[in-house]
Design a protein that fits this description.
Length: 491
């Protein structure tokens, strides 16, 4: 029950003499009376934090997403946060004690004396005087006609401070004297980084096509992006990286260069002058849209990848495939190791739990250790599922998701329930089922390790088959043999 959040809970709280506790502030964040975990966090941020905390301490029985009708603000389309707040009600037309006037009449008198910005426009009264103060100094005012006024002022790094706009109508009524903050935010240089391949090969062929996954970001907009290619530290080519045009149209509030780019840039080594070269280096360069008058544009450089040139090296694609296969196998082996370590605890725990009436500190320690292994195995499985989704091993991604959801994750939840279950028999049943799910998970990962060897061999054979077909195509079309390196299938 949350008496401070929702009508039904509020009345139930009143009926049961509960405190109307409302730890959520007007801005939607938790105040200092809330647990440290969520203090200062919005209610939406706190949802995930609380769920994860319950998961970590083994108290989360289940977690799923449901679709249901929920009140939303009709203007912003955002969910409404229910808060119990103190309110007061008055009769505005009842004469007050003392002055011969009602509260409504007194309020209207205040309105006539203190009209806000919107009030001037709403009453269709022309502004006879307008003043904009920047840090106490008036800005230049332009009045092309009786109904229009505008201000001009240069914005510099010294403009930080306060500003206030005062509008006055023909009756001498003026807008509220409210000051606002001017914050100067410096334009930072763009950032660029190479995100793939995860494990770059040390050597490449002079005829290779080398694709690089990259990310570029800037706070105000990316003006240009390039792939810099150097041979033995000698710059030989700059390859332009397409930057999408900004969105436009009636629905676009602000037009300008995009601030984030996630794409792939490719260096075709066969088209470069590599004569006598021993190594080739690749680097991403990004420029922002800061005007030259302000010292721009600013530059951002990624790390530099350097490859040794070797005509005898396996193709770039083949090496990347091998490196990826190795990473996947290592991840599977780590999952298997965590499960085996967990099994060494779950087996004895299952056998002893039938005769355990009270959970001792030693037993609780074993439960925590088992759960730690299961959490590690589940995280590894989910990460591997994400990493292989949409790649060459879709079956592996599906298997990892199923492993995490139906076996490892289930065993983790069951293990957590052992600590909060008082009855002896249900505790023993939880331990038995958790041990069974661990056995199933071990069997699945063991089979996947064997299957993966077959999958990788098939993937490598597919690459080799593609290369053989390319050579056959060149030879059967009687093309000069020295044009073999121009075949995209061989890169």
């Amino acid at each position: 029950i949350a008496p401070g959040h929702g009508t039904d809970d509020y009345y139930v709280g009143l009926e049961n003499n509960l405190n109307i506790y409302c730890p959520v502030q007007a801005d939607g964040t938790f105040d200092d009376t809330a647990p440290r975990l969520v203090r200062g966090k919005s209610v939406w941020e706190a949802n995930d934090l609380i769920t994860e905390h319950l998961k970590q301490i083994g108290s989360l029985l289940a977690s799923e997403t449901i679709t249901h009708s929920y009140p939303h603000d009709w203007r912003s389309k955002t969910p409404v946060i229910f808060r119990a707040t103190e309110q007061w009600f008055i009769s505005v037309d009842r004469p007050l004690a003392g002055p011969d006037a009602s509260l409504r009449e007194m309020a209207m008198d205040v309105c006539r004396r203190d009209i806000d910005d919107g009030g001037v426009n709403a009453n269709s009264d022309y502004v006879t005087k307008a003043e904009l103060l920047i840090n106490g100094k008036p800005a230049q005012l332009d009045r092309p006609d009786d109904v229009t006024c505008s201000f001009r002022l240069p914005l510099t790094s010294e403009s930080a401070g306060r500003w206030r706009l005062t509008l006055t109508d023909r009756y001498g009524h003026h807008s509220k004297l409210i000051e606002h903050t001017i914050e100067v935010i410096p334009d930072t240089p763009p950032t660029a980084r190479i995100t793939g391949p995860a494990v770059p090969p040390e050597k490449v062929r002079p005829t290779d096509k080398v694709p690089l996954a990259l990310e570029i970001s800037d706070d105000f907009g990316i003006a240009r992006a390039e792939l810099l290619v150097s041979v033995d530290d000698r710059k030989v080519q700059t390859i332009a990286i397409p930057v999408p045009a900004p969105a436009s149209g009636p629905a676009t509030r602000r037009a300008g260069p995009i601030g984030y780019l996630n794409t792939i840039a490719t260096a075709e080594l066969a088209s470069l002058d590599l004569a006598g070269g021993r190594s080739v280096s690749l680097q991403i360069r990004a420029l922002d849209n800061l005007p030259a008058s302000l010292g721009g544009p600013q530059e951002g450089l990624s790390e530099r990848l350097t490859f040794e040139l070797d005509v005898k090296a396996p193709t770039y694609v083949f090496q990347v495939q091998l490196a990826m296969d190795l990473q996947i196998r290592e991840a599977l082996e780590r999952i298997y190791a965590e499960l085996i370590s967990g099994k060494k605890i779950s087996g004895p725990l299952r056998r002893s739990m039938k005769a355990t009436k009270t959970l001792t500190e030693t037993t609780l320690g074993k439960v925590d250790a088992l759960r730690a292994h299961l959490v590690a195995a589940e995280d590894l499985a989910r990460n591997l599922a994400d990493a292989t989704a949409g790649g060459q091993y879709p079956k592996l991604s599906e298997a990892m998701t199923k492993l995490a959801d139906k076996h490892v994750g289930k065993a983790r939840e069951l293990t957590g329930l052992i600590k909060i279950t008082d009855a002896q028999k249900p505790r023993a049943e939880l331990a038995d089922e958790a041990d069974f799910q661990i056995d199933r998970a071990i069997a699945i990962v063991s089979k996947l390790l064997k299957d993966f060897d077959v999958w990788t061999e098939q993937a490598r054979m597919a690459v080799m088959h593609k290369m053989v077909l390319a050579i056959w195509r060149v030879l059967t079309t009687r093309e000069p043999f020295d044009r073999l390196h121009n075949c995209p299938e061989l890169r």
